[in-house]
Every structure is written in structure tokens, then in C-alpha cells.
Design a protein that fits this description.
Elements lengths: L21 H21 L5 H15 L8 H17 L5 H32 L5 H8 L4 H10 L4 H26 L17 H20 L5 H15 L9 H16 L4 H7 L3 H25 L4 H8 L4 H9 L5 H29 L8
């Protein structure tokens, strides 16, 4: 998953855009987001309503912006996206996993092994300190990785930067690949922003999202704000107990808030802190993405999965941004989400022990840069 505002470093000292009043910073972010979203939408890029605000927020953050998305709004966005994906899934997600579980586990453990090897290499070469490299390269939920990294004494600023940069790179690459895969003759349906809605179904959808988000928070489930509404919505929808109703304007707002939350994490102090390791970090992300691309090829070659479904299913996070891209593309959403969810759960289960073990083998006491 994407970043959690509570896990973000404190806002930087005011400079550049940061000298503006917050209302002007938000106004600039909104205008820039609308412009970039419109440009990407016209180009036919999937998830333009996510990528435009994400890039706009990164521009604002790097130029000194001090605004941050309020935590409640971020949590609401995650819950809404969970319900949106649930509405796009058919009843085959469980059977999809059960029918393919050896394949799923093999792919998941391959991704975990490769990301761990990447972290081990960065730590062993003294490019990054101790367990920071392990947590930063872990292909799991970004916010969960930052929280666990802090608990194990890693440099949370570097971990956050590495995780958010991976999410940005993966989302951008997935959007471009999905766009290139679209049949040029296929017509893109027009978005009806303010169409008629079933108010009863809409109210029930919001209620399930709210209850699921609260449950995920109280139960302390990793990425629970997204996962619990997603699972509850999927079960209720596929069993005929809920018709998920979410208007396009509300989904667009949720996409924008998710993109803002990711993009605003890129600030000058974080870039300055990570500048020595920036090239190795980018290389490690590219290496992991390339490895996952190879896994996608194997899925298409030996399992008969269509190429775009395989690519999105094996993309190394974040799960919510991949979910948005999958839902806006002609892919098997059930397969994509089953594999993405399996990867997240496995990393949550084995991540802490694996990080400690690998950091010990790398010789790693924490060394702050």
C-alpha cells in the first residue's frame, strides 16, 4: 500500500512554495493536478486521475510545499478504493487463488527473495545502513514497511523515500504498459461524472466502507483500511447482498487523495538525505521491476495468463495503485488482486524475521548517514 501520513517525516522548513499560505499551496496543487490529469486523460493513460495528482504533488513537495493530506481523508480514500476494486471483482477470486496456489506462492516467494537480495547487497556494500536497506527494498505495503522499520531501528526517512519512490515508479510503469497494451481501435467509454445513482445502494456502500475501515484500524491488520473493505465488499457483492455504488466524482476524489499522499512525501530534505544512495536505489527498483517482468513472462508462457494481467499481478506494489490501474484496464482483476494480496500477506508474515536475519548476515549494526 501507499504511504500513511502518520509515518511521514515532519514537514520541511519553509522554502519556495512552502512560504505561501497553506490555502495557496492547496490551490496550486489542485490546479496542477487538474491540468496534469486532463493531459494524461487525453493521452489515454490508464489511472490518469491517480497519476496526475501524484506527479503534481511530487512537484509541489520537491519545490518546498509544506502541506500534507489530513490523515482521515487518506484513510477514507483507501476505504473507497477498496470498495471500488471489490465492485470490479467477480466471485472467482478465492477459486483463482485455490486453483493457482502453488504458482502464486512460487511467484510471491521469488519476489520476496529478490527484494531481500537487493537489500542485502545495498547493505553489504555499505550503500545504506543496516536494516534500512532491507526494509526499504521490501516489496510490501509502504506504510507498513515504514512502521516496522522504525520499530526495528532503521532510518525511517530513507525507508520512506525508497518505498514511496518504488510505488511511484511501479505505478507510472504500470500505467504506461497498460496504455501501450490497449487496442488502438478500442473506444474508451466516456466518463459520466454526475450520473444518476441508487441512493440506497450508495448509502450501503459507504456504510460497508466505513465499518470495514474502522475494523481494519482497530484490528491492526496490515493495510487493513484497504483490505477489510475490499474483502467485505467482495464477499457481499459476489454473494448478491450488496450492489456497490460509487459515483465517478467520488472515485476521482479518492484517486486524487491517494496520489497527493504519495507525491507530497517527496521533499527537498528527503532528497538531500538520500542523494548519495539515489542511483543505487533507482537501480534496485529497476532490477526488481525487471525481475517481476520476467515472472510475468513466465506466467504468459507456461500458465496461459494474458500478458497485461500477468504484468499487473506481478508488479511490486503499491497494491492500491495497481488496483486502480487494473480496474481501468481490460484485465482479470480477480487474478491481479489475488496475487497482490497474497504477496502483501506473505511479506507481512515473514518480513520482520527475514529483515533481522539478513541484516545480521550483512554485518549490520545501524549506521546513520
Amino acid at each position: 500500500m501507499t504511504s500513511d501520513p502518520a509515518d511521514m517525516p515532519p514537514p520541511p522548513l519553509a522554502s519556495g512554495i512552502g512560504r505561501w499560505p497553506p490555502v495557496l499551496q492547496w490551490a496550486a496543487l489542485l490546479v496542477l493536478s487538474l491540468g496534469l490529469s486532463a493531459l494524461l486523460e487525453l493521452s489515454g493513460l490508464p489511472a490518469a486521475l491517480l497519476m496526475g495528482p501524484m506527479v503534481a504533488a511530487a512537484i509541489v513537495g520537491i519545490n518546498g510545499g509544506t502541506i500534507r493530506l489530513p490523515r482521515p481523508l487518506y484513510l477514507c480514500a483507501q476505504a473507497l478504493i477498496g470498495m471500488m476494486v471489490a465492485g470490479a471483482i467477480d466471485g472467482g477470486i478465492v477459486s483463482t487463488f485455490l486453483d493457482n496456489w502453488p504458482l502464486f506462492l512460487g511467484i510471491v516467494f521469488s519476489v520476496i527473495a529478490m527484494s531481500t537480495l537487493s537489500g542485502f547487497t545495498l547493505s553489504r556494500l555499505n550503500i545504506l545502513p543496516g536494516t534500512t536497506a532491507i526494509w526499504g527494498t521490501s516489496a510490501g505495503a509502504a506504510s507498513a514497511m515504514v512502521v516496522m522499520a522504525d520499530a526495528f531501528g532503521a532510518d525511517t526517512r530513507l525507508v520512506a523515500f525508497m518505498q514511496y519512490l518504488r510505488v511511484l515508479c511501479v505505478a507510472a510503469a504500470a500505467s504506461i504498459v497498460a496504455h501501450l497494451w490497449v487496442d488502438g481501435d478500442a473506444a474508451t467509454p466516456a466518463i459520466v461524472w454526475f450520473g444518476a445513482i441508487d441512493t440506497v445502494a450508495f448509502a450501503k456502500t459507504l456504510a460497508v466502507a466505513a465499518v470495514g475501515a474502522v475494523a481494519g484500524r482497530l484490528l491492526r491488520i496490515p493495510a487493513g483500511i484497504f483490505l477489510v473493505p475490499f474483502i467485505a465488499g467482495t464477499v457481499l457483492s459476489t454473494t448478491g447482498h450488496l450492489a456497490i455504488e460509487l459515483p465517478e466524482w467520488l472515485l476521482a476524489l479518492g484517486y486524487a487523495m491517494l496520489g497527493w499522499n504519495i507525491g507530497l512525501g517527496f521533499t527537498r530534505p528527503i532528497l538531500a538525505h538520500a542523494r548519495r544512495a539515489l542511483l543505487p536505489i533507482l537501480l534496485s527498483i529497476a532490477f526488481l521491476m525487471g525481475f517481476c517482468g520476467c515472472l510475468a513472462y513466465l506466467l504468459t508462457r507456461f500458465a496461459g495468463i494474458d500478458a497485461l494481467t500477468a504484468y499487473l499481478a506481478t508488479s511490486p506494489g503499491g497494491m492500491d495503485s495497481i488496483a486502480i490501474i487494473a480496474a481501468s484496464s481490460n484485465v482479470d482483476v480477480s487474478f491481479v488482486m489475488a496475487l497482490q494480496t497474497a504477496r502483501l500477506l506473505m511479506i507481512m508474515a515473514f518480513g520482520p524475521a527475514l529483515a533481522r536475519f539478513v541484516a545480521h548476515k550483512a554485518g549490520g549494526r545501524e549506521r546513520r548517514p
